[in-house]
């Protein structure tokens, strides 16, 4: 442990984070964090990415960790700064993303005086965090930081929130802590494997629900072997942190957003086996309808909990049911697809994405209602990773794309972004421009909260002019090209599929960000 009376708490924090493998910080600092900011000048090695709104910062940290498989740090200003970032920390919690969430706060002796920014910072942090701690002295900051990194990385991953009063940052006596060893990932008990095998051998219609790390290539292949050997069906939750897909990879369907559609598709299922997933539930409740997307009398079994080793569990289950050598279904092998022409539809956009998506792209989807065909319609696209909004708090897409691009230089990021939710965090465009990130934003401009029109019908409401006006963002029309230009991002507008294809092809061949406003 490195100790120096000349080292302050902020310096020990930076050095400990770097020693623990955290070398990227998404930040929106304020006065309480100035000693951390100053320490970043004196200590090389930390990449600092500025966001103009805390929701950009927290969402970018989420996107970064999903692709880097390690946490980034955030830097937020006191309780209100944390509050501005809470929605995307909620999404990160649902995605089980490792984030080291650093929040500055009032000095320990200043807090009792109730200055204007004083807040229940710990109380606000706890619901989105797997670990929360307030540092109390400079000498403990390094050890607290090491513990935060260990907690964030513990399976399946989560937000670790470290609150730093400003005096523990500027006080001398900081100590650099050695990295803490990663916590062991628990293996599934043998009884759970045997029970799942028994269910699969029963001959009853069985659904296997895969989530988390089970959606990477190797465990997904084992799941397909199990399904091929036992006639089980595979599915994922509607929203997932990251899915490996495209040509040469094995496809898996998602549970539909609509409860009615999902219940029709899953009718007749007798057993549900969960692999890193909670028991599926519809997004919302509706009068007189089941909250489950599968039959109410289906029996739910747990092969592996989210914090357990999912890949190991699937491999052992494949052995248990004799599926290790089972023939895999043919993976998508279409080498070429034609671009769509004419009017802009969800299916047409999916077809063009299939034809033009760059190899090893990262697709970030927050397309909401218009994007219904995007996921199923791009199964034959070039190999890619697919990232989604996981917690339902809209405004994640552009920040996720920002963080993913920082984490994976050399891979093109394609953000499929609805206009209504894009307005929550459009400041992400400025960060993309500043960092020269290779992001193609496909801005889906239908100028309404279209998904809520469907929700009105589903809850049996009869909307009038006042209700419909609250779902309309087209009066006046948003001009996304001008907004992007104002933040340093080039852009252009497309009204038909031919123009979209030309712009999409061009954007993916250039360096830096580009926005396509696709009018739908």
Automatic annotation (TrEMBL):
GO terms for biological process: small molecule metabolic process. Belongs to the TPP enzyme family. Pfam families: TPP_enzyme_C, TPP_enzyme_N. InterPro entries: THDP-binding, Thiamin_PyroP_enz_TPP-bd_dom, TPP_enz, TPP_enzyme_TPP-bd. This is Acetolactate synthase large subunit IlvX. Residues 383-517 form the Thiamine pyrophosphate enzyme TPP-binding domain. Gene3D superfamilies: 3.40.50.970, TPP-binding domain. It comes from the Bacteria. Its EC number is 2.2.1.6. Residues 7-112 form the Thiamine pyrophosphate enzyme N-terminal TPP-binding domain. It comes from Cupriavidus yeoncheonensis. GO terms for molecular function: acetolactate synthase activity; flavin adenine dinucleotide binding; thiamine pyrophosphate binding. Keywords: Thiamine pyrophosphate, Transferase.
